Structure formats: C-alpha cells, structure tokens
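Office hours follow-up: a student asked to see two folded examples consecutively, so here they are.
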Amino acid sequence: MGMPRILIVLLAFVAGWVDASSFVGLDHIMAAHVTGNLVVLAANVAEGFEANDLLKIVVLPVFFCAVMVLTVVHDRFWSDHNNAHKQVRLLLRLEAVLIAGTGVLGAWATLAGWTLDFWVSLLIVTPVVCGMAVQNAAHRLYPSIGPATTVMTGNISQFFIDQTRRLGGRSSTSLINDMPKQAGLLPWLVLAFGVGCVSGSLVTVAMGNGSFLIPAALIVLVSVLPKPASQ
C-alpha cells in the first residue's frame, strides 16, 4: 500500500498544530509528542508543583490506553481485511472526530466561561490525546503510510546524516524501516511540522481551543484522497 506524499506531509503539519495548540491552550500539555509532558512536568515540579500539573501525568495513561484499545479493535476486526487503504482512511476519520471533539469542547468551555481547572482541562484534552494516539499507532500498524510524523527529532537527525554523507560523495539511505525512503521528503516533513506549530499556536491565541477544528478538517480532507493509481 502506497499513500500519497501529501498525506505524510499533512499529518506532520497536523501533529505540529495539535502539539502547539494543546501547549498554548491547555496548560502546556503536548498531545502529539506525549512523552514530552514528562519534561514539562519535571520543570513544573522544580518551579513549584500545582494541582493542574497532574494533567501531564494523566494524559500518559490516556494515550497508552487509547493505543491499546485501537490495537485490540484493529486486530479483531480489521487485520484480516485486504483493503489496507480503506482501513487507513477509517483511522484518519476516527482521528478527525477525536480532534474535532476537543475543538467543540474547547469552544463550548470558552463560550460558557468555564475555568480551565484540572477536570475541565482533562475533559477537553482527552479526545485530542486519543486522536494523536490513533495517528501514532497508524504508523506502526501500517508502516507503508510513511515515516513517523508526530516527533521530528529522528527525521531531523536522518536529514543531517544524509546531507553529511552526500557532501562526502556517498549515498545515504536510512537503515530504519519507519524513516523516509522517498527522496526529498525529509525537509518537507520538518517544514510542515514547524509551520503547523507556528500556525497552531497563533490561531489558538486568537480563537481559543476551537482552533482544533481546523486540523480535524484537514484530516477529513486527506482521508478522502483517491487511492494511488499504481495500487
């Protein structure tokens, strides 16, 4: 199964948007790079632990449980199907619904004038954390989608390995299966993620947590892309 390059690039953009939006709008939570919450939590503890900082711990089991539930559902109902392209579309639509759930809840909380205490923040952030669990898991369940899009550290490292080798007149291909093999894809992924981060943070500052509706709409858009002709 080959997926359009635009799918991988757009997923990187969405991951950057969601991570920045959740960080800006939901008390410094990282919904895509979920383990990054441990770093933020450690800094909070050093500066003075508060009740809302518990959210950075709670989102981890929420994320892990979402991956586990998705795996069970996938293995029981989808893994015997031959149409992997259709299954990926279903995963993307599920992700879109979950991200949109945070957008709707976030907008509702703003309009209702709710204070973002621990429980309200948990209610709002849970759908998008589950949505990013779907995106993370999709890369593992269907490696042909392409390289990981939720964290760029590995992609950036591979990019500079490739450039260093090429400057020395040698070819360079990643030995890791989930790294990009397509020529020229790496810089696009990094750029898309970065643009997503900037866009997500600016829009969230301007319109609040309703901003999550935008990446949800983009995921719906990419989920209806036609199957590549070669497949």
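And the second, which I mentioned at the end of office hours:
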Amino acid sequence: MRSSLQEFLGLWTFDLFIITNLVLAGLVYGWAVRRVNRHDRWNALATTCWFSGLALLALVYLGPVSAWSHTFFWAHMTQHLVVMMAAAPLLVLGAPVTLAFAASSGAARRRWVVPILRSRAVRLLTDPLFTWLLFAGVLIGMHFTGFYNWALEHHDADYFLEQPVYLAAAFLFYFPLIGANLQPRRPPHGIRLLSLGLMMIPEAITGAVIYFAPVILYPAFDSPRPFGLEPMSDQQLSGALMWALVMVVDSAWMMVAAVEWFASEERAGRRIDREIAEERAQGTMAR
C-alpha cells in the first residue's frame, strides 16, 4: 500500500491552458531579452527572477498542491501563499515593464509605451496606497465572505477568477515597492518599507482568525479525505501558515527593499562626490 506522501506526490494536474500561458510568458520574455542584448546587456538577475517566478507558478498550479487544493485547506492556502508572497514579487523583480521599454523601437515607445506609462490608469495602479488597499481587500474580502467557499465549490470561479485575482493583486502591490520597473512616480524608499511592513497586519489578522476559529469556516473542506489531517486540524494548520510563515517572507522582501534603499543612497553619494570633484577641478583650472 502506498504511503500518504507517495499518494500526495503522485497526483499532478495537466492543464493545457496554464501550461500555454506560462510557456508564452517565458518565450515573450526571452525574446525581449535577446532583442535588448543585441545592443545592450540585460540584467541576468532580473531574468533569473522572472523564470523563477514562472517556475513557482508552474509548481503550484500544476503540481500536487494544485491537485489536492480542493481536498486539503493547507494545500489551497499554500498555493495562494506561494503565488502572492513568492511568485508575484519574483515576477516584479524580473522588471517586465523596463524590459518592454528597452526592447521596444523608438516609434513604439513614443506611440504606446510612454503614453501608457503616463496614463491616469497606470498612475492609480502604481500608487502604493491604492495597491495596499487592493491587496489587503482581496486578502480579507475573499477569506471572510462567502466568495471563498463558493469558489471552492465552482471550479471555473477558482480557476478563472480567484487565482488570477490573487496573482494580479499581489503583482500590483509589489510593483511600486521593489525592483526596477519603470513607472510614473516611484514612492520614497521609506514609504516602500512602511507599506511592506503594514501588510503584515491584514495577513496576521486573516491567519489568526482562521487558526482560532471554533468551527469549520469553509464547508467545502469539511468532507472525508483519503488521508492526512482531519478538517479542524487542517484549518488550524492553514491559519498558522498564513499567520506565521508570511511574516518571515514579508521580512525578506523588506530586506530587499532596504538593500535597494542603501544602494540608491550609495549611488547618490557617489554622484555628489563626482560633482564636488568636478567643481574642485574647475576651480583649480580657473586659478
């Protein structure tokens, strides 16, 4: 008889729609990198981040976590946490907007890229207050309304609505806070760190409510399962994952933002030093 672990790992999903989209995202990015490298050098770390993000999406959308996500709450929670807390920020660090700008022709930049970047819609979608409220609203709203259980009971809703919304909200949240993507107005580094830190509040609240709930919150998970934790223990584990694990992950992204802040200050310091040196040199030549 196979063990529970073997049974869990042995079940995968083969979804042509997801595979096609992930492959297409990789091919388009790779094409753009190759185009930029003809006349410049694209950041290899950004490329690594992009494809790492796609790999994580493939793992949680096609692997055992996805296959069991409607049986075990912890699997469903793990899928969402990986998408929101790891894959989405890695895609942001891939700097797709900057890459699109660099790979575009001069005419395309003037006609499409620059006008889009300067549009009111993009200004709103990159405003850190808006993106924080959006991400927190998605996180709390989906877990504490009837939507979550409804999506679990309707595959198409989970597939075409819930999963894309989590990914999009997380991508927009991290977009103005980390990485080197072009955007209309980049928030100050202090605001970026503050936004990342404050996101721990709705995450902690969501996790704590799920963990301490005295009843099963989502009837879709209150059903017989072939192995593993019983429903209440499964729910508590899911709450603990949201409550504790994301604190560690968020702290890591705060460190990334802090490193970017320090690097920016160092560049500014070097620029000031060069300007001072040039002024001194000009003064020496004048004498």
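Two things to take away from it. The chain has 14 helices and no strands. The chain has a mean pLDDT of 91.
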